[in-house]
Amino acid sequence: MAADTPPKKRRSPISRAEGERRLIDAAYQLTQDRPISEVGVREIATLADVNAGFVHTWFGSKNDLVIAVVKQQIAEIAELALQAKPGTAALSFEDPKLICVIRLLLWLHLEGVEVEHLFYNKIILDNLTKRFIEIENIDPKIAREAATIAISIGLAAGAFAPMLEMTEMTDIQPVMKLWRHILSLLAKYPPQ
């Protein structure tokens, strides 16, 4: 008889929904600290304990899996924005989810993937607008523009902070403080 070799590990059957969730979670985990270009489909599938072929079967491509990751993170970020306490920032520039989403969006854009649809119904924009109206008492006529500016600041800080030598949260805090001040001014003195 041949040398004793341990039997191969058999994956237990899982539902498509469970497999997709595992792949999305694994892709998110692996892209936290590494460029997505360095993360392979097989590595994602191995971490998820799912056959690598299911990435293509269920998502179509690695880019489509990344899109699913971004959609999930955007939904979570939007929900957190609504739950933030009054007088605090709705979005945190140090939130790993936000940083990861920005990196993945930039990567997808550079890959030529249309990313505009990823903000399905502009959920973050809608939630920030709602927050600015209900919690910050900003005039509804300008709340959407204020939310657009907030998202733009967040995207810029997340994407370009290192290039602006803003490597620590203490470097970004003055920008946040200034934005909070602008919001309070908008609430007190809405533009005519």
Key traits:
single chain, Arc Repressor Mutant, subunit A, 192 residues, mainly alpha
Helix content: 55-70%
Strand residues, percent: under 5%
Structurally, how many domains make up the residues? 2
Radius of gyration: 21 Å
Give the overall pLDDT as a whole number.
Answer: 83
Order of helices and strands: HHHHHHHH
Instruction: Categorize the overall geometry.
Output: elongated
Q: How many extended strands?
A: 0
Report how far apart the termini are.
88 Å
| SS element count, helices | 8
Low-confidence residue ranges: none
Structural class: mainly alpha
The largest sheet, given as strand count, sense and whether it forms a barrel, is:
none
Q: Layout of SSEs?
A:
Blueprint: H1 16-30, H2 41-48, H3 53-59, H4 62-83, H5 96-110, H6 123-134, H7 140-160, H8 169-188
Question: What can you see in these coordinates?
Answer:
The N and C termini lie far apart (88 Å). Helix 4 (62-83) runs antiparallel to helix 5 (96-110). The protein has 2 domains: 14-60, Arc Repressor Mutant, subunit A; 71-188. The chain contains 8 helices and no strands. It is 62% helix and 0% strand. The mean pLDDT is 83. The chain is elongated. The relative contact order is 0.09. By secondary structure, it is mainly α.
